[in-house]
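Our preliminary data section would be incomplete without showing what the modeling component actually yields. Below, a chain of 453 amino acids is followed by its predicted structure, encoded as tokens that our downstream tools consume directly.
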Amino acid sequence: MRRREFLAAGAALALLPRARAARASAPRLVRAAPARAAIAGSGYPDTEVWAYDGTVPGPELRYRQGERLSILVENRLPQETTVHWHGIRLPNPMDGVPHLTQPPIAIGGRFLYEFDLPDAGTFWYHPHLASPEQVGRGLYGALVVEERDPPEADRDLVWMLGDWRLDREARIREDFGNFFDASHAGRIGNTVTVNGRVTEAFEVRAGERLRLRLVNAATARIFALRFEAHEPWVIALDGHPLEPFRPEGGRIVLGPGMRADLLLDCTGEPGSSYRVVDDFYPREAYRLLDLHYAKGGARGRARGAPKALSPNPVPEPDPARAERHVVRFGGGARGGLTRELAMRGIAWTVNGRAVSGHAHEPLLSLPLGSSQVLELVNDTVWHHPIHLHGHVFRVLSRDGRPNPRREWADTVLLFARSRAEIAFVAENPGLWMFHCHVLEHQESGLAAVFRVA
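Predicted structure:
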């Protein structure tokens, strides 16, 4: 190489973005393996779980927007696995869907996940193989991509909401694959945790502002959280910013897979406690935990409405020029479930098709770069949080009523006998899963594949 060529090459290298330079750095090793964890709290024995790096949740992965994630996953479980990076707009081979985007990670095997992080926000990671069992045993963790200009807050915290089905000795009940669960509301447990354990109180200080990143990591439970005597601001949904708003009735409703970022002003009296209540299922409402104020000082004051966060670089769909499709969900108990389907272990249909597994004929083929509007129709009497891989979408309407907010999402909660319109740009080539995030529903047929090309 001549000196002039050498200097030109050096100048080109200097201009490479930081994300490119990160390619050469050593990946972080994360192991999926059996472990023990104090899930049920004091007075109960530890629970045998499956975990990333021995903890439930797994390690909290934090990056800055635009950085490159590089994670080497090692499988020490007694079965194959994968990792899906929920909500991230990433290359198709990194999406973690077995037999569709990658081969399963064999027992004792490894797989390198490496991709850029285009969007700031709250995301998470979990298996996409035998997911009702693997997530139900504790395999999940938070992925936080920090904004370049974050909101003013004294603490930035993740609350991963988990749901477990335990016996009296705090052992996980081994009834995975239960067809009753699959054809009804899913595997709803009897023990709810925050960050992997039953929590009685969460300590706060009068006057501080918290950023709470809520993640519903349950396989089936829907949460509706109310912060008694407090008025949180919602600043992001499914990781993406929107105009800050107070939630209707003070309730933050999250189906499985969904996230919400809150700003919570701690305006309570020092030394007092205030309940955080989950009342999505009214007859089974319970106290999740108490916000417990440290003693001393004066009562806190609200800081006023926050500014909206900077938007992520998501392409805006054009509904006027979009292709339009109807996607209809059927089946389930007390609905269209037939004996023939039940004998095949299938409880649900998508546009009348009864399929199982991850790799099958695409339901829709979408031209790359096209705007798409999907009308999602829930013809069942059960709730379905519908999740799209590799993309995010605008929620245009619910039950024919325009959405009052401009929100991006990757998961939309369909209530029983309801419908919603979503719009997105089919910007990401590949074969992408589109499924219910009640994982027992997904496993028993409520799933489809879209081709973008």
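Residues 3-146 form a domain with the Immunoglobulin-like fold (CATH 2.60.40.420). Residues 1-24 have pLDDT under 50 and may be disordered. Preliminary results of this kind motivate Aim 1 of the renewal.
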